[in-house]
Amino acid sequence: MRKIVLTEWVSLDGYTSGPNNDMSYVGEYFNEEMGRYEGTIIDTADTLILGRVTYDSFAGSWPHVPDNPNSSEDEKVYARKLNAMRKVVFSRTLTSADWNKSEVWRDIDTQAIQKLKEEDGKDILIYGSASIVQELTKLGLIDEYQVLVHPVLLGGGTSLFGDARSALKLVSAQPFSSGVVLLTYARGK
User: Fold this and answer.
1) Domains and CATH numbers, the chain
2) 4, CA 20 to 30 Å: which among 45, 63, 90, 160?
3) What is the pLDDT of residue 189?
């Protein structure tokens, strides 16, 4: 059975973005090690779960990266992988999803997600999409949490987990030279 794996950048105080959706903190700590992590994690999956806001952001940029002469070769390789993946977009307002292999799901349906996990293939990744993460956590549908904790306090913004509660088991902790620590947890004790 495929796993649903969350990969998310957060501040030390648990925010995915600061006030006004500011994510500039990520760029301050992104380095070659983190680039390798991103390249590795994407190779483990063939499906993305996204909320509308994250979908709009990704669909507005990644499809254009492979043809952009200003993009690095690593960015182009990463973009090609993202572009080739199946994308499940949760939205009640999006009327269509034009990015390659995208489909809109109106509601989080536990049975439909379980069926998705039972399909053949690689794992399923969630990037961003805090409200989707919170709901899937409450339903016990995320199997692994890969949280990249950045050494910065934002003091407010978008909380990754909100009021979601779940018992997790530490699988590993990997520090990067930038001060970011990758914490990997599995669902359950």
Assistant:
1) 4-187 (3.40.430.10)
2) 63
3) 60
